[in-house]
What we know:
Helix content: 10-25%
Bound molecules: adenosine-5'-triphosphate
GO molecular function, one term: ATP binding
Protein name: Protein kinase domain-containing protein
Organism: Lentinula detonsa
Strand order of the largest sheet: 1-2-8-11-7-6-5
Structural class: alpha+beta
Shape: globular
Number of helices: 5
Keywords: ATP-binding, Nucleotide-binding
Binding site for ATP: 105
CATH class: Mainly Alpha
Amino acid sequence: xxxxxxxxxxxxxxxxxxxxxxxxxxxxxxxxxxxxxxxxxxxxxxxxxxxxxxxxxxxxxxxxxxxxxxxxxxxxxxxxxxxxxxxxxxxxxxxxxxxxxxxxxxxxxxxxxxxxxxxxxxxxxxxxxxxxxxxxxxxxxxxxxxxxxxxxxxxxxxxxxxxxxxxxxxxxxxxxxxxxxxxxxxxxxxxxxxxxxxxxxxxxxxxxxxxxxxxxxxxxxxxxxxxxxxxxxxxxxxxxxxxxxxxxxxxxxxxxxxxxxxxxxxxxxxxxxxxxxxxxxxxxxxxxxxxxxxxxxxxxxxxxxxxxxxxxxxxxxxxxxxxxxxx
Length: 327
Ligand SMILES: Nc1ncnc2c1ncn2[C@@H]1O[C@H](COP(=O)(O)OP(=O)(O)OP(=O)(O)O)[C@@H](O)[C@H]1O
């Protein structure tokens, strides 16, 4: 029987991140936290739907503890700052498939809710679509911790507000540093089912993240732990027909999973991690992975008129002006 290996999302319950650079040093203890479910978008009526199938995923409470030493900054954007991190646990404590280096995406202090959404999409792609490890990096969980002054030392200044000084600092160009960004399923009409049964199922509306807002007096740090991929896509890669073919195929995989990415640009396409598995649909190891899902949402292709009605929403528009950053 062809059994899928245990999901990387079930490996760890708690995490310690040690960061020591010339600007700061910190030691953060974090615990697994629930991610933030999305409503289901439907192209039938162009509305978001509350749907009990789109709910939180269980977090493991008695799984292993992971210890990381922060390495280089790999990139940043409006939502977070991304670092490589070396696993410092004794190897015997870890599931054998855990690589020695991972990636920590820190949410900016005002963007924890957006990162909680991105974490939910990774969960969705892992559990429903089995795309983690082939088309998107494997995810090792979403963790949070309250930030205390005692856990952080800044060598330049002790301010929590300094841009770029700390991995969770608010983005310098943020238009509203005191709020998280508005997600597409926060606005417009919401369609509710006629019968709404189980109270114990946590959907977007009943999730604590739905009403979350950053509190400067009680800051929260949130991180997403991912498999480490390589360099992002460049104009040089763009000229290679083999690269183009492979990217078309991973776009097809994400489209057939019914996940609308909503921000498909060159920086969100990276070289696939070393341990990428064979894609069962294309019977090959893809050389590229898609990242950055904080603006994504799922569709249910079994109720959509696919591809006729879904094309505009699901099409990743590879090599479009938006992809190149021209519009
Ligand atoms: N798993 C990964 N492996 C290697 N590099 C990564 C990984 N995840 C992110 N990066 C690097 O970090 C950069 C920023 O990551 P990401 O796009 O997730 O941040 P963001 O803040 O959500 O961006 P945006 O402003 O588009 O929302 C990427 O362009 C990429 O270079």
